[in-house]
Design brief:
Blueprint lengths: L2 H25 L7 H20 L4 H23 L4 H8 L5 H17 L3 H33 L6
């Protein structure tokens, strides 16, 4: 893969992640002036995950670091634009939800229900289910971490 092909794939990934981020932001009634920031945060987060995964990082860790980046970006924008950070971050993280892994888990479960137990179906269901669960947990923890780091200012006794 040449550098131009890689840059095209990265930019396509970022643009295609910005579209559902704006869609979910509109579902959550985000103000119109904040939609462009939601799109940008979704593109930045998905682009970060794309780069990390193409550098051999597992999807769980890549999603964690991308969600942390989205969380920090949301905190930065929330202070500058005087809005809660969740306005920018929640809709931006939703395009990173691992739908394919969850879908494969459910398909394996349905096939086991119809065809009976099979070692290959069980392995597919467990592997994809664990990957989906850990990726969703990584997104949740990664999104919460910047808020905990920047907003918890209690002195330690």
């Amino acid at each position: 893969m040449t550098i131009w092909q890689w840059m095209y794939a990265l930019s396509a990934d970022m643009v295609l992640a910005a579209i559902p981020a704006v869609g979910f932001a509109m579902v959550f009634n985000v103000p119109v002036r904040a939609l462009k920031y939601c799109a940008l945060a979704g593109a930045i987060g998905h682009g970060c995950r794309f780069v990390l995964m193409h550098n051999a990082m597992p999807i769980e860790w890549a999603s964690f670091f991308a969600a942390m980046l989205v969380g920090m970006t949301g905190i930065f924008w929330s202070r500058r634009l005087v809005a809660p950070p969740h306005v920018f971050t929640v809709a931006a993280v939703i395009p990173m939800v691992p739908g394919v892994y969850a879908f494969k888990t459910m398909i394996a479960l349905v096939e086991m229900n119809q065809q009976g137990y099979s070692q290959a179906l069980w392995q597919s269901m467990v592997t994809n289910g664990i990957t989906a669960a850990f990726t969703i947990a990584a997104l949740a923890i990664g999104l919460a971490m910047p808020g905990l780091m920047f907003y918890r200012r209690r002195p330690v006794i």
